[in-house]
Amino acid sequence: MAGFAGVVPFFIDNYYLILISRIVFGLGVGFFNSLAITVIDLLYSGSEKTKLLGIRTSMEQLGYALASLMIGALLLLGWRFGFLIYVWAIPISFIFWKYVPEVQSKTDKNNLKKNNSSNESHGKKQIGFVFLALLLMLVTLCDTGINVELPKLLVEQKIGTGTVSSIVIAMKTTMAMIVGIFFGKIYNLLHWWVVPSGIVALLIGSLSIPQGHLWLVCLGSVISGIGSPLIGTNAFKTISETAPSGTENAINTMVLIGFNAGSFFAPIALTTGGNLFGGTVKSDFYFMASIFAILLVIVISQKIISRNQTHNKSI
Q1: What is the pTM of this model?
Q2: Measured over all CA atoms, what is the biggest interatomic distance in the chain, rounded to whole angstroms?
């Protein structure tokens, strides 16, 4: 669906047919996006699963980078040629069909173990998954905002050009890839502190970038690149360990909807929120920093409350 619908604009001019093709393309992406995470959950376990979830995040960043380069080259031939990038989906689908084994839901025994691993009620677990989706929506909103606002900031402050901003964003993407590859080791080192560490990285980045110095823009962008892969990969790891068997794909889909909603609402939210801080490009970064500060307080407060409840129950 994604491959065939993706290349439709290369062949036709009709606006409505192109619009329909983009909707079909989105449906195709929606089918396999969450499944990629679920397949790792069902085929692997333990530290190997944690490592592979991190590599998946890293490959996602690599895919964005390579696709952007290829699209840039294709656009030199004309705007239509950029859509040919989606032809890659077709051979990839055959590779998936040939090499990825059929997966099944985990056994009832594993399901029972998973469901008994926590004293939380089913309702509380559902609330937790919704919170994960909202957390990732806000993180993605701001992470997207950094990429969108950074070129405008460099031009506004007269410290760089569009080409320089591309290099800075590439540095940020490279850092995200590295963090994804080493997520397993990072998690073994930080455990629960993975998420607060990711939020702190994004907070530092969003405060450093608008300070008017190119070296701070570069440093802040690289540091912010640490945040999203830490938070996102840990979210999918949490789902794989706590979701009842048979519901993993649905919950992964819900969380991915949070990702996509964050990207979708980023321009609207930044315009509205930035006006509260002065209405400049610089103020958009302070708005994002305020979001990360609030998220950090919420996450740490939730941990303290949860630890106190556990302590009281043990008493």
Answers
A1: 0.79
A2: 71
